[in-house]
Amino acid sequence: MAATGVRLDLDGRPIKPMTICMIGAGGFIGSHLCEKVLFETPHKILALDVYNDKIKHLLEPETQTWADRIQFHRINIKHDSRLEGLIKMADLTINLAAICTPADYNTRPLDTIYSNFIDALPVVKYCSENNKRLIHFSTCEVYGKTIGSFLPKDSPLRQDPSYYVLNENTSPCIFGSIEKQRWSYACAKQLIERLIYAEGAENGLEFTIVRPFNWIGPRMDFIPGIDGPSEGVPRVLACFSNNLLRRQPLKLVDGGQSQRTFVYIKDAIEAVLLMIENSARANGHIFNVGNPHNEVTVQQLAEMMTEVYSKVSGEPPLESPTIDVSSKEFYGEGYDDSDKRIPDMTIINRQLGWNPKTSLWDLLESTLTYQHRTYAEAVKQAISKPVAN
Ligand code: NAD
Ligand code: UDP
C-alpha cells in the first residue's frame, strides 16, 4: 500500500517527499485526503482538527506501516499558539477547516463568517511570513447565482452556456441581499480568496485555491441522532440518507428544482493530489473541481437515491418517496439558494490534465452501500427504543 519507487510529477521530475500541515484533516474531505497521501505517497501529515473520529482508522493501531507518517494534533485554530510552529515544520499547508453546512449560514451567520474568514487569517499570515505554500479550500458557492437566473423564465438565452457555466476567471460572483444570510458563507470565502490572492500579488505567497462543486461520498457529515445531533441538519447527501435509513419521505426544499453537479470524493481527491505534487502548475491558480456531467435537480437526486437505496438495501421504496417543504420551514429565515452549478473545467484540464470519472449512479451506489452497511443497524435500534416520557 505504501509508495515505492520514485514518483514523477506531470513534467517528469522526481517528487520530493514532503511534510503537509493539514488543517481540518478530521473532516469529510480531510479523511479521504489523509488516506490518499498515506496509501499512495511517501509524504508525511501533521493532521490538525478538533475531532479525529473520521481518521481513527489511520491513527491506530500504531503498528500500521504508515503510522510514523501521520501525527494528530487536537487543535482549535481559533486560539492555539502551536499553529505557527506546525506550519513552520511543514513544506505545505492545506486549510480545510470551516463551518460549511448551509443550515448554519443563515442561523449562525457570525460563527460562519468567523470560521471562514477570521479564523483563516492567521493561517494565511503564517504561510506568507514563513514562505510556505498554501492550498486553501474555498467553495463553488463564491459564484452565487448564475447570470441566467435573472433572465425571464422563457428566455432562449437560458440555454446558452455562457449564462450559466461557471469559470474561475470570467464569471462574476452574484449574491443575494444582506438579509439573505445564506450568503454569509460565500461572502466570507470570497474575501479570504481575495486576501490570499493579494498576499500572492504583493508578498509573493505561493497559493492554490480550490473551489469544490458538491463533492460527495462515504463519511460525509453525520446521520442525525446516530453520530451527530438529533436536531442537526447536514448537507443533502446525509439528509436524504437519513430519510432513507429511517424509511421517511425525502424532503424537497422549495420543490427541489435547484440544480447541482455531484462529483465522487475519490475522483476529486485525485485532483488535490495533482495540485500537491505539481506546485509549478498549481501555484497562483484557482481551480474548479467538479463533474459537469453529473448534473441533476435536487428532485432527480432524491429519485435516484431512492432507487439506488432500494437496490442496495433490498427494501422497497415508500409509496410517496418525497415530500415538499418550504425553505423557511426547513432552514429558517434568511435562506436563499444557488440555482445551478456547472463547473468550467478548462483551467484544471490545461494545468493538471484532470478529469472526473465516476457517474452519479455509480457514486451513489458505492456511497449508499457504505451508508447502509454503516448505519442501518444503529438506526433500526434507535427507532425501536421506547421514547422516554
Ligand atoms: P467538514 O466539516 O467535514 O470538515 C471540516 C473540518 O474542519 C472538520 O473536521 C472540523 O472539525 C474542522 N474544523 C472546523 N473549524 C476548526 C477549527 N477552528 N480548528 C480546527 N479544526 C476545525 O467539511 P468538508 O466537506 O470536509 O469541507 C472541507 C473544506 O472544503 C471546507 O473549507 C469547505 O468550505 C470546503 N468545501 C467543501 C465542499 C464539499 O463538497 N464537501 C463544497 C464546497 C466547499
Ligand atoms: N436540500 C433539500 N432537502 C434536504 C437537504 C437539502 O432539498 O433535505 C437542497 C438544498 O435546499 C439545496 C440542495 O439540496 O438546494 C443542496 O444542499 P446542500 O446542503 O448539499 O448544500 P449546497 O449544495 O446548497 O451547498
TrEMBL record:
<dbReference type="GO" id="GO:0042802">
    <property type="term" value="F:identical protein binding"/>
</dbReference>
<keyword id="KW-0456">Lyase</keyword>
<feature type="domain" description="NAD-dependent epimerase/dehydratase">
    <location>
        <begin position="20"/>
        <end position="290"/>
    </location>
</feature>
<comment type="similarity">
    <text>Belongs to the NAD(P)-dependent epimerase/dehydratase family.</text>
</comment>
<dbReference type="GO" id="GO:0102765">
    <property type="term" value="F:UDP-D-apiose synthase activity"/>
</dbReference>
<dbReference type="GO" id="GO:0048040">
    <property type="term" value="F:UDP-glucuronate decarboxylase activity"/>
</dbReference>
<keyword id="KW-0961">Cell wall biogenesis/degradation</keyword>
<dbReference type="GO" id="GO:0033352">
    <property type="term" value="P:UDP-D-apiose biosynthetic process"/>
</dbReference>
<dbReference type="GO" id="GO:0005737">
    <property type="term" value="C:cytoplasm"/>
</dbReference>
<dbReference type="InterPro" id="IPR036291">
    <property type="entry name" value="NAD(P)-bd_dom_sf"/>
</dbReference>
<dbReference type="GO" id="GO:0046982">
    <property type="term" value="F:protein heterodimerization activity"/>
</dbReference>
<dbReference type="GO" id="GO:0071555">
    <property type="term" value="P:cell wall organization"/>
</dbReference>
<dbReference type="Pfam" id="PF01370">
    <property type="entry name" value="Epimerase"/>
</dbReference>
<dbReference type="InterPro" id="IPR045869">
    <property type="entry name" value="Arna-like_SDR_e"/>
</dbReference>
<dbReference type="InterPro" id="IPR050177">
    <property type="entry name" value="Lipid_A_modif_metabolic_enz"/>
</dbReference>
<dbReference type="InterPro" id="IPR001509">
    <property type="entry name" value="Epimerase_deHydtase"/>
</dbReference>
<keyword id="KW-0963">Cytoplasm</keyword>
<protein>
    <recommendedName>
        <fullName>UDP-glucuronate decarboxylase</fullName>
        <ecNumber>4.1.1.35</ecNumber>
    </recommendedName>
</protein>
<keyword id="KW-0520">NAD</keyword>
